[in-house]
């Protein structure tokens, strides 16, 4: 469980209303972002919940909408201490700010990585693994010789030796990929999801 789990979560309908868009269009966008691994979605009965700060950050709309709501409520009533709506807006604004700061910290610590970078790294690892496994036919003569000398037991022993070589090669290739990986730098544009 991370701190966002207890953060500011709202239904897609509430977010759509506040942002002045249709619930259907926001729902489609949320589904797309969730399928791309950019945001988390929760269910509360039939309602779909999203963390507001996480959503705003991904779509590049981080702003003061929650704070503006608190300011508008403050302007409506001069007696702030007795206004429950103001307290609610202020609490929401504080939680929204805390969620944004948590996301920023996770990013700086390298625990928040764009899905595209993870996919790219996984593809490179898979390519390196496949290149090594593709060497397997080159062992045919050695396996045949082991079978000729010691039968099935010789084949098993030779295959175990080959497996150790391939595993070692895969580990080396993945280690080299990790050593040569460029440091990750994130810009706001990395989180933009058009639409």
List the helices and strands and how they pair.
Layout: E1 9-11, H1 12-19, H2 23-35, E2 41-44, E3 47-51, H3 52-59, H4 65-76, H5 84-108, H6 115-133, H7 140-180
Antiparallel strand pairs: 1-3, 2-3
Helix pairs in contact: 1-2, 3-5, 4-5, 6-7
Key words describing this protein structure:
single chain; 195 residues; mainly alpha; Arc Repressor Mutant, subunit A; 2 domains; 7 helices; 3 strands; 6% strand
Question: What does this 3D model show about the protein?
Answer:
This protein has 195 residues and is mostly helical. The chain folds into two domains: 3-108, Arc Repressor Mutant, subunit A; 115-180. It is built from seven helices and three strands; from the N terminus they run βααββααααα. It has a three-stranded antiparallel beta sheet. Strand 2 and strand 3 form a beta hairpin. Helix 3 crosses helix 5 (84-108). The longest helix is centred in the last third of the chain and has 41 residues, at 140-180. The two termini are 30 Å apart. 13% of the residues are buried.
């Amino acid at each position: 469980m991370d701190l966002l789990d207890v953060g500011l979560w709202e239904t897609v309908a509430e977010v759509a209303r506040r942002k002045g868009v249709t619930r259907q269009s926001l729902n489609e966008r949320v589904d797309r972002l969730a399928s791309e691994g950019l945001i988390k979605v929760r269910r509360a009965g039939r309602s779909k919940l999203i963390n507001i700060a996480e959503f705003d950050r991904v779509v590049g709309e981080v702003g003061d909408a929650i704070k503006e709501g608190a300011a508008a409520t403050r302007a409506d009533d001069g007696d702030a201490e007795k206004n429950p709506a103001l307290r609610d807006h202020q609490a929401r604004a504080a939680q929204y700010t805390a969620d944004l700061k948590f996301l920023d910290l996770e990013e700086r610590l390298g625990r928040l990585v764009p899905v595209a970078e993870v996919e790219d790294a996984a593809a490179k690892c898979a390519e390196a693994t496949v290149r090594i496994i593709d060497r397997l036919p080159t062992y045919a003569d050695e396996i045949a010789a082991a079978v000729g000398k010691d039968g099935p037991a010789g084949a098993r022993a030779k295959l175990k030796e080959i497996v150790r070589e391939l595993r070692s090669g895969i580990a080396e290739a993945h280690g080299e990929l990790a050593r040569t990986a460029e440091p990750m730098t994130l810009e706001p544009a990395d989180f933009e999801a058009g639409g």
